[in-house]
Amino acid sequence: MLDHVGLSVADYQKSKAFYEKALAPLGYRFLFEVPKEHTGGISVGGFGAPPKPEFWIDGSGKPSPKLHVAFRARDRAAVDAFYEAALKAGGRDNGAPGLRPHYHEHYYGAFVLDPDGHNIEAVCHAPPEADRRA
C-alpha cells in the first residue's frame, strides 16, 4: 500500500547513524541523500533495500508528533538482531522481542525509541517453523 514514509528528526547525523546500525540486521541500508539545493538546505536521506529508499529522515529539527514505524523482518532472529543493534546504537527499550498474540498468533515484534522518541519496531508475522526452514 505505501511506497515510502518519512519523519523529521532533531539531529540528522545522529539519527542517520542510529538508523544505519539499527536497520542493518533487517537488510536495509542508507541509499540516498537529496542534494540540499533541492531541500531548502535541510538534510534529507533515505534508507531501504536497493534499489530505492522506502524510509526517509529529514533534519528539519521538528520531530513532532512522535510516530510509530514498523519494519518487516524476514524472521524472528532478525527482530532480535534489530533490537540489539538499535539499543547499541543509542535507542531506548520500548518492548523487548517477543510474541504479541493480542495482534495475532504469530506476531513477533520488538520496539525501541529512536533518538527523538519515535517508536520504531521490527516485526515478523511468520510462524516459528518458518525460521527453521530459512
UniProtKB/TrEMBL annotation:
Repeat is among the record's keywords: no
SUPFAM superfamilies named in the record: Glyoxalase/Bleomycin resistance protein/Dihydroxybiphenyl dioxygenase (SSF54593)
Annotated Gene3D superfamilies: 2,3-Dihydroxybiphenyl 1,2-Dioxygenase, domain 1
InterPro entries tied to this protein: Glyas_Bleomycin-R_OHBP_Dase, Glyas_Fos-R_dOase_dom, VOC_core
Keywords on record: Dioxygenase, Oxidoreductase
Pfam families (alphabetical): Glyoxalase
A GO molecular function held by the record: dioxygenase activity
Domain VOC: residue ranges: 1-125
PANTHER family per the UniProt record, alphabetical: GLYOXALASE FAMILY PROTEIN (AFU_ORTHOLOGUE AFUA_5G14830)
Protein name per its UniProtKB record: Catechol 2,3-dioxygenase
Annotated source species: Amphiplicatus metriothermophilus
UniProt lineage: Bacteria, Pseudomonadati, Pseudomonadota, Alphaproteobacteria, Parvularculales
